[in-house]
Amino acid sequence: MAELAVLRTAVEAGERTVIGGQHLLAGSFVALALVFAAIAGATGDTFFFRLATEALIFAGLALSVDLLLGYTGLLSLGQALFFGFGAYVSGLVLKHVAPSFWAAVGITLAATLVVGLVAGIIAIRARGVYFALITFGLAQVAFKVVFNSRGIGGSDGIIGIPQIKVEFGLFAVDAQSPAGFFLVTLAFMMLLYGTCAYLMHTPFGRMLMAIRTNESRVPFLGFSPWRAKLAAFVIAAVVAALSGSLYPMLRGLVSPELLAFQTSGNAVIMVVIGGVGTLVGALYGSVVLTVLKSVIGTFTEHHLIIIGGLFMLSVIFFPKGLAGYARPRLERWLARRTERA
Amino acid sequence: MSEVIETLQFVYAPQVVNGLAIGVAVILMALGLTIIFGLLDVINMAHGEFYALGAYLGITLVAKGASFWLCLALVPVVMAAIGYLGERSLIQRVFHSKDRHILTLLLTFGLAIIAEDAFKLVYGPNPYKPESPIPGASELLGITLPNYRLFLIVAGAAIIVAVWLAVYRTSLGAMVRAAAFDSQMASSLGVPVEKVYAGTFAFGVALAGLSGVLLAPIYSVFPTMGKDFILLAFSVVIVGGMGSIKGAVIAGLVLTQVQSISSLYISPVWSDPLVFGIMVLFLMVRPQGLAGRLGHG
Amino acid sequence: MQMLKVCAAVAALFLAGPVQAQPSPIKIGVVTPLTGTYAGIGQQVKWGIELAVKEINDKGGILGRKVETLYEDEEANPNVAVQKAEKLFQVSKVDFLTGTVNSGSTLAVGQVAERNQRLAATTVSYSDAITGAQCSPNMFRVNAKAGMQSEALAEWLVKEKPGATVYFLGPDYEMGRSTVAAFKEATTKRGLKTAGETYAPLDNKDYSPFFGQIRAAKPQVFYTSVAGNDTVRLFSQMAEYGLTKGMIVVGAAGTITGQNLAAVGKAAEGFVTGVGYTTEIDTPENRKFVADFKAMWKTDPDLFGVDSYGVVYFYKTAAEKAGDTDTDKVRAAMRGLEWQTPQGKKTMRAGDHQAILDMYAVKIEGGKFKIAGKVSGAAAVGPDTCTKF
């Protein structure tokens, strides 16, 4: 018990300084998003609104990768499995059951709990790189199954998913309104982010960090690392799937490529660029990658060389990513301000 | 009775022999992966791209007038140099960090993205098919077998034995194994650990390049070819035990036979999930794989 | 003061600019795979379009306006394709969109066009669904669909070897299975027999595990609908095993094209397919087109190149008939439109937006696609099954 207390104080001491920086970064993310929305709204834009909405949706996928990698030390190379699963469940519900936002999100949530639990029981038996390879393989197999299943559109995917209205009781937002759906998605993602950030500051989150630091010590403290890892895996699966469930509402279609390795790989790139173990970095990383892809892709067909190069540079020179780089600086600045005050 | 023999001869035997040729190809890919992992703890996500690079170097040399046999000797040397430089300039940069497993995996993943695009930039998107250096087919007990595949089986087996001898029967190999077992101890005994790391990585990369040249006449050459073997090779490495040469050979042979024979009964689309299922089972029941890792017996 | 004058002069220069400039160009967006497995097809698409646009601009453009093309890489991924299509429609304000290759992307882009009230066309996708069950009022197809290819090939085959047994090998995914099914229907209808069928995974490394079954079935004809790199492997491995001896080898139009013909090499000799184009079509229009294409790109056009070249003229003819670039007016003009292409005259069927073009059975001889038979477009196209408009 004494050991646990020591661990706790150590982690808490670390966190007290961390919280300020992370919250500031999250706050500025929302502020930047709102400034963007104001400018885009004023200029009557639609494309950049929808591109930004897509970036937010993929930010949720990146968030789930960071939840595993940054807090439990598990690198998932197949997180697109759950993202794609959420997108397909949501798309099928919208098209065949009821064109309702809440039905799609609710059924996705319930279905992912089951699928995430099963996949988690298989995957978390493996540690370290084995986990990376097993998630990679699971997603590959799932991709092939979807690609070959005629009942859900096979390689063509599903088009013609109806355009919906997001009902909030007192008012409704049309998912086809670029600004409206952008704001809904922003709120949705910040809710997911907030929940994750909150969870990481509960005893459960501390246990995950303890697992990341030294897994073999955790059982001595009287906790089961297996259960905590499984819980983290399921939560990450749910975050990925819920993000995915918004995709068909935005684009009106789903296709097997949503489950492909490319999608998982992009999420990993987002997390690394944004900053591993920061959660908020995943949001920034997604925006950066989406902008890069959209801009570079217009100028050269060899955008992969540039993105791969930037990615390698950031692994070597900025292993902490954007948020990891900015956070201590912000904190120092905050500390100076508090001192002065 | 004669019907049974006929089925064995005309249905199963060709399947087994074809599976053997594919098995040798996969083992060649897996050997480099498993040696690099066994010593450096590095999952080389770019291994498939090194295989592709070997094949592209091969067709470039052939286009310049070199013979296939010269390529077979020359390409591994060039690839080893590339591997050595790659290890010193990239892997070493993150090797001493706490998260080196993940950082090196990410680094080689980035390298794979760049390499695939670079192949397209230099060689264009369309496939190349080198002429088979040993054309024609032979008939053995009523089974038609292309001569080049027979050569592949023999040459592959020779390479596997040579690799095994190099690791287990030479003083260089002893250094490698010592460094894998306990790098600090090896270092204090005068083993130049840094050079051994780079050398081993170079060796693994050279093996990938060699496989590229050797397999190009059968599997042809195109920018995305690196993805071909990678899932199967990873499965072989995991089932065989990361870092185990013996394990990779056994697992390579068994898994390709499973694929080959099962394709007679089930849709081949399910053969990948089948192999993957075996890999998952192994991870659950025997996570260390068939055999122990390099330097550990 | 001097400074102010200079400023004013510079400003005047800039302001004067647009006034003297020509009318704004007509923009054609091209969303096509420039990376990944289909990059080779994307290249032909680009080359065909570039050539047509150059010719048209040299002769004064469309409706007196220059044509401008904007390319975006869709990575053969429908999710990327929709994003790029929206960018071209909403930011670049393109008048017309083309270039998608895999049918998933084409269907997805068709939906984007519909929701943005613009027009799009495919020059490559041959899935029957695009102008059938999943047809869209905003999507057109100028190339031959899978059903037309099967008709032309089956027609040739039944003359060549009536009553023969056929073995089918398709890539195991939805599209591959449906092409095999279409050809199987076309052959059984004509009295040919099925010796067996197998499906190999996409991006399959080694086909030798299937050879035992094929050999055992002893077919007279071997049909395959694999494509791209897979074809290179299948054909060279079949040749390796001496499997093709005494067998007629036929396949889908995409099985052997300009991209992989060189790589398949000698193993391609004698292969027959049903296709809407070959460089061997002996008309002055086609001879000129092949010569111009070769002069510009140092290589022969293939079916993707020619159909992509033709789609620009399709738009030009329709826009000039409509006298405008307004979506509804151009669509009305496109329906039932007849226009000239190197393949001859094509007609856009109003009911399902499927182009009607003459189909050929072509045989590879000496590394060239020689014409072995011809089916008129009207006979090959089949009934209109689109019920959406």
Question: Can you walk me through this structure?
Answer:
With 341 residues, chain A is mostly helical. Chain A has helices at 2-42, 47-72, 80-97, 101-123, 128-148, 178-200, 203-214, 225-251, 261-274, 280-299, 303-317, 321-340; strands at 165-167, 172-174. Chain A is 76% helix and 2% strand. A two-stranded antiparallel sheet of chain A has the order 1-2. In chain A, helix 2 runs antiparallel to helix 8 (225-251) and helix 7 (203-214) crosses helix 8. The longest helix of chain A is centred in the N-terminal third of the chain and has 41 residues, at 2-42. Chain B has a two-stranded antiparallel sheet with strand order 1-2. The model of chain B has no long low-confidence stretch (mean pLDDT 87). In chain C, the strands form 3 sheets. A 7-stranded mixed sheet of chain C has the order 7-6-8-9-10-14-15, with helices on both faces. A 5-stranded parallel sheet of chain C has the order 2-1-3-4-5, with helices on both faces. In chain C, strands 11-12-13 form a 3-stranded antiparallel sheet. Chain C is built from 13 helices and 15 strands. Chain C is of the alpha/beta class and 389 residues long. Chain C is globular and about 65 Å long. Residues 13-19 of chain C have low confidence and may be disordered. The longest helix of chain C has 20 residues, at 39-58. Chain C has helices spanning 2-20, 39-58, 78-91, 103-115, 146-160, 174-188, 208-217, 228-240, 258-264, 284-297, 303-322, 327-334, 377-381; strands at residues 26-32, 67-73, 96-98, 119-122, 139-141, 165-171, 193-200, 221-224, 248-251, 272-275, 338-341, 344-348, 355-356, 359-365, 368-375. Classes of the chains: A mainly alpha (341), B mainly alpha (297), C alpha/beta (389). Chains B and C meet through helix 1 of B and helix 2, strand 7, helix 7, helix 8 and helix 9 of C.
